[in-house]
Amino acid sequence: MKIDLPGIADQQALVFTAATEAAIEQLRQNLAAPRVPPQQEVDESQYPRTHLLREAEGWHAPHPDIVGAYFRHFQHHFPEYNTDRKLAQLLGLSGDRRVREFKQGERKVPYGVWRHFLVITGRAPQDVLPVLAYMA
Length: 136
Prior knowledge:
Low-confidence stretches: none
Structural class: mainly alpha
Helix content: 40-55%
CATH architecture of the domain at 44-120: Orthogonal Bundle
CATH topology of the domain at 44-120: 434 Repressor (Amino-terminal Domain)
Radius of gyration: 19 Å
Largest sheet: none
Number of strands: 0
Number of helices: 5
Mean pLDDT: 94
């Protein structure tokens, strides 16, 4: 018995197409995310807004007051992430210690972690990169 299978390049194209379609659907679902009131813990006008920029646009790590306010606000609205450990897991960090260090200003939040948080909280758009070529 002989089973004809598509070549590797064709299989990769199918996987890529399926993943792209799933990503498009996720972006559509993102547009329907619930709206929650803004945080009221700190007056954001007293801080620079460079923590909302992309790296190439002049991003600077947020002040610890902003980090703490944003994290606590998120945790209040999403009880499934109500501990620093759960928030750390959501952000791809290995443990809750790092989240506490960010909140207390002992360590600056890295761009990638902060951008991830901004995207999942609707404070920054998700970047979609162009594919310039398939170079298998």
